[in-house]
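Instructor's aside before we start: the two examples that follow are unrelated to each other. I chose them only because their records fit on one page, so don't look for a connection. First example below.
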Amino acid sequence: MSGKMLTLTIDGRTVSVPPGTTIWEAARLLGIDIPVLCHEPRMEPVGVCRLCVVDVGERTLAASCVRLCEDGMNVVSQSAEIEHHRRMLTLLLLSEQPESSAREATTGDDALYALARRQGIDEIPFPDGARGHPRGRDDSSPVIAVDHQACILCDRCIRGCNELQHNHVITRSGKGYRARIAFDLDVPMGSSSCVACGECAAVCPTGALTHKALQHWRREWAGGEE
C-alpha cells in the first residue's frame, strides 16, 4: 500500500486508511462488526457469501470484504434494508443445513449458527429435504469427516488448502444444487493427496468439515452415545 491516506465515513464515524484497504477492514479499525462467513483475514477475500454487504450510495449493496475504500466515501453498515438482506441470506443458508451441526456439537463454533442466533433465528426454517444428507457424506478420511449437506460453498477450505498450506487438494465439482467441494479429481478425501493437516477443518465455518478426533472424544465423554 502506498500513496496518501484515504478518509471515509462509516456509520457516521470518520476513519483514514491506506489505499488498498477494504471497507470491511476499515470498519474493523473502528470496532464496527460486519458479519462474514466466507471471509477470513488470513486469506484473500472473494465476496461469496454476500453477508458483509454495506450501502455505499450505489444501485446495489456492496460486499465490504472485497470493496476497496475510496476517499470521501460514505458507508452505512446497518440499516433496515441491510439487516433484511442478511437475515434472508441466513435463512436460505440454514434451510439446506442438516438437522444438527457437527461443529456446534463438538467445538461449539459453527459461524452460521452463531450468525442465526445474533439475528434471533432459533430453528432451521423452510424444511426442504435436508434430512438424510441428500448431498452426501464422506467418511473415508481417518482424520476429517465431510458432510456436503452442511457446506455453504464459501471456499474457505479451498483457500486454506491452497493459500495457507499450499497443498492444492480441494476444489469445486458439480453444478447448481449438486455443486460441492471435491478432492483432487473428485475422489473420496481418504483416497486423495490430502496430507491431513487439518487446515480445511480449522477454517470451515460450518459442520461441513470437522475433526473426527473431536467427534470420537464427544462420544467417549458421553458414554458411547451420539
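Example two begins here.
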Amino acid sequence: MSKNTCRWGILGAAAIARKNWQAIRHSGNGRLVAVASRNADRAAAFIAECQAQIPHHPAPRAITGYEEMIAAEDIDALYIPLPTGLRKEYLLAAAAAGKHVLCEKPCGVDANEVREVVEACAEAGVQFMDGVMFMHSDRLTALRRELDAGEAIGELKRIVSQFSFLAPESFFTENIRGQAGLEPLGSLGDLGWYCIRMALWTMRYAMPLSVRAHMLREISVPVSLSAEMDFPGGVTAGFYCSFEAHHQQWVNLSGTEGQISMRDFVLPQYAPEVGFEIERSRMEPDLCHFHMERYSRRVAVPEYSDGHPTAQETKMFRRFGELALSGRPDPHWPDIALKTQLVLDACLRSARSDGREVTL
C-alpha cells in the first residue's frame, strides 16, 4: 500500500458503483485501479462509459473474474456492490487476502452471515464498513449537536421515517431487487436498512428492546413493510419501506419541546448545502379562537449533494481510505453494521409471524 494512496478495486459492475466511481476520484486519498466483472466485455464497457464522463488518470483496467481482483497485489481495498445473496463468499475471500472491504448494504442475508464476515475482517486486521453514505455527511454532526444541546426538541420521544419509491411492474421481473435468490430482503434490505440505521444513530446505537413489524405486501421478496421499535428510556421508533409508494425519504424526530424534520436524509436534494428544519408549535386558545403558532429555523452545512468533493459519498471513501492507510481498523463500523442487520432480522421475523413481538 502506498503511504498516501488507497488503491481501490470495484468488484462488480453494478449501477450504484457508477456513483462511487466519482467519489473515489474526488476522495483525495484514493485511486481506482480496476473494475472486475465475470464478463470481460461488461467490465470494459463499464469503464469506458464512466471514463467518458468522469475520467480517471490513468484509466482503471478491466479484470475478468472476481477471484483475480481479490488476488491482485496492486489493490488495497475493495468496494463490493454485488447482490446480497452472492456477497458473503467474496467478502470472506477478500478478508483472507488482506483486502479492506467497503460493502453495499444489506451486508448479508442475515446476521449470522454478517457476524462471520465481521469476525473474518477483524482476524485479518482489515477495515470493514457498510456503504451508508449519509453516515459521513457533516449534516449528522450538526444534528447531533442540536440533539445534545437539548433546546431544539427537549427530551426525545419518537423517531419516524419513510424510504420508498414507486417501482414499475417490470421491476419485479427484471431488477435484481425483486429476485429472492439475489436480494432476498427486498425493500427491507434496500430501503429499510437506512431507516433502521437512522434510528440506531439517533439512539447512539442502543438496541431496541423489541420490534413489531407488518408485511404489507410480499411477492417473492418483501415489497412493503412497516415496523415499530421500542427503545430504552421510553423512546419509540417507526418506519415504512416500500417499492410501491411515491419516492420519499424523510425522518422526523419528536420531543417534549419540538421536532426536527429532514426531508432527504438518504439522498440529499441537489443543492450546495444540506440541512434540516427545527420546529416548535404553540397553541394559544382565546375562547372561540384557537391560534396555532409555528416557529421554525433551518440548520444547514455547506455540502453538495452529488458528485462533488464535499458530497457524503466522497467523504465516505475519504474516511475509509484514512482508516485503511492508518493500519488501525475502527471496530465502530463493523459493529453498527451488525447491529443494523440484527434489527432488520428481527423485523423480518416479526413481519412473517403476523406482527408478533420479537425481543432483542
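The chain has two domains: 6-133, 135-311+340-359.
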